[in-house]
Automatic annotation (TrEMBL):
Name of this chain's protein: Transmembrane 4 l6 family member
Transmembrane segments: 12-32, 44-64, 125-148
Coiled coil: none
CC per GO annotation: membrane
Membrane-topology annotation of the record: Multi-pass membrane protein
Species in which this protein is naturally found: Lynx pardinus
Location in or out of the cell: Membrane
Similarity section: Belongs to the L6 tetraspanin family.
Lineage, uppermost ranks: Eukaryota, Metazoa, Chordata, Craniata, Vertebrata
InterPro entries linked to this entry: L6_membrane
Keywords: Membrane, Transmembrane, Transmembrane helix
Pfam families: L6_membrane (PF05805)
Length: 170
């Protein structure tokens, strides 16, 4: 298969993934479909990892595959950090905190679903964050692989020539 054909399909897939990442990132601003004060939104959401990293930076990966890879990796890192630290929520005291933030994976809330009830407001915030951040993590990982394959394909074209040039010389 020519690299141009592969690039076309990869580009279409990256565009669809970018749209999904933007939507998932936007949904993180509305926990459980509620409109909250900006101060009550999880801090890592404000890094725009789905909107910028896995979204806008994916619009030009054919020309800038390295930029796309960096954007995808940014989304993966921020999504991972968001999953590890947990949501910003009211644990019943009336004050919003990060009740699951700790430095160890031992006893992590991700592996202990009954602890999710710790967050009282917004309702179902833990599930909301886990699902959306997991989606963004997956999208970022797939985009990184696709952009790296684009980069490898481009380098092969530079050093080995494209199949179009090979067909003309045959």
């Amino acid at each position: 298969m020519c690299s141009e054909t592969g690039s076309r399909y990869t580009g279409m897939l990256l565009l669809a993934l970018a749209k999904m990442a933007i939507v998932a990132n936007l949904l993180l601003y509305f926990p459980n479909g509620q409109v909250l004060e900006p101060a009550k939104i999880t801090d890592l959401v404000w890094s725009f990892h789905g909107f910028l990293g896995a979204g806008l930076l994916m619009l030009f990966p054919v020309l800038l595959a390295m930029q796309g890879t960096m954007g995808a990796m940014y989304c993966v890192v921020i999504s991972s950090l968001g999953l590890l630290s947990g949501p910003f929520c009211d644990a019943g005291s009336g004050n919003y905190t990060y009740p699951f933030r700790n430095n160890t994976l031992e006893g992590n809330y991700l592996f202990n679903q009954p602890t999710w009830a710790t967050c009282r407001e917004p309702e179902h915030i833990v599930l909301w964050n886990v699902v959306l951040l997991s989606i963004l993590l997956g999208i970022g990982a797939v985009e990184a692989v696709l952009c790296l394959s684009q980069l490898a394909s481009g380098l092969c074209d530079i050093f080995c020539g494209t199949c179009i040039r090979k067909a003309r010389t045959s």
